[in-house]
Known about the structure:
Strand content: 5-15%
CATH architecture: 3 Solenoid
Number of domains: 1
Structural class: little secondary structure
Amino acid sequence: xxxxxxxxxxxxxxxxxxxxxxxxxxxxxxxxxxxxxxxxxxxxxxxxxxxxxxxxxxxxxxxxxxxxxxxxxxxxxxxxxxxxxxxxxxxxxxxxxxxxxxxxxxxxxxxxxxxxxxxxxxxxxxxxxxxxxxxxxxxxxxxxxxxxxxxxxxxxxxxxxxxxxxxxxxxxxxxxxxxxxxxxxxxxxxxxxxxxxxxxxxxxxxxxxxxxxx
Length: 214
């Protein structure tokens, strides 16, 4: 009996096959990857391999990964330790995925569902997480500093994203200056201050690093 219950934010691994539930109540819930998602696994793995070849060869071989709109939960080991700099992950489903230790410099995750994802120890310099769902995601010990590009300095962006109990313990961040923005940035829409969000992170400053306290 689920009368009066809110299961719109339910995650996977919940068996509701024998429950009489109006589909409208499941809007916004996260279900296990469907058959169509599993059927694309081989192609996804091929694109990842080409992207790593592109990184290793410094652009001489392969090409950057474009994995927009994919359900990457089908990857058996997630993307832990993979080198996918500059990859496009727009609107992916990565709920509960392991991205730990990955090189994701300049990667774009805009509008993705990354609840409970693990980005700990990942290189995320210049990455974009705009308008994402990042509840309970972990960025512990990750590198969230800005990078220099042909268009200028690029800061990590969480603008418009939902961050509830998102962790940044020990993450490397920039303090910014009169000429460059701090990294990461959260945008004016965030109710909590940058300092509150990044409690426990290591902010780079002229004398080295300092731990951020609220």
